[in-house]
Amino acid sequence: MKLALLIALCFLALAEDSFTTLRNKMVDSQIVARGISDPATVRAMRKVPRHLLVPPDKVSAAYDDGPLPIGFGQTISQPYIVALMTELSRPKPEHGVLEIGTGSGYQAAVLSEIVKEVFTIEIVPELGNQGKERLQKLGCKNVTVKIADGYYGWKEKAPFDAIIVTAAAEHIPPPLIEQLKEGGRMVIPVGHAFFVQNLVLVEKQKGGKITSRNIIPVAFVPFQREKK
Ligand code: SAH
What we know:
Distance between the termini: 57 Å
Number of strands: 9
Number of helices: 6
CATH class: Alpha Beta
Helix content: 25-40%
Largest sheet: 7 strands, mixed
Shape: globular
Bound molecules: S-adenosyl-L-homocysteine
Number of domains: 1
């Protein structure tokens, strides 16, 4: 009996080891090779076990170069896009960051390795609850998940140093701009659902002036609205 347990533990340790190897390969070939250079972002991407945030039948594809289905018509974003959005938000250890679209919890877990606090909102209750559970299991104590329509942001926790939106909106929700700190950054895919969208970097200057610029074309799932 004891021997069987020992053998099982050895297999688990070997499997974890091979996931670490795959993850480091993913970071080298998909992230660093494509120009992501912020050390904190690269470190977080090397650390977060993406294979524990995908559905069980997708574990073998967890380190592939693309998004994966997570149920309810939603996806876990491509690793490179998660890294790019993280780097663009210029995360610092003292920051409070808002994410709209918890989904699998992967983007929130990556941010939680870098910043002080992550607040994340998910509109699909089942995904929000699943994400919350997974993040707890991973030991991400500085992440708070709320089930709501992220269009309105999270007023009680605002203002935020950075906001990352992981679903494509046809316009930038004004409450999110309001809840961004002066000097803060928002990264958001803007455009029509099911067409190519632009990843937009919005900056709120000191004094409140808003500037924005397009970074790259992207394809995100649509930003949904709460049905009243
Ligand atoms: N950040 C996620 C990406 C998930 S896909 C990850 O790393 O896995 C985008 C998610 O945004 C989906 O789960 C979708 O349900 C959610 N979403 C869409 N519109 C939303 C809204 N208005 N408020 C909150 N979440 C929303």
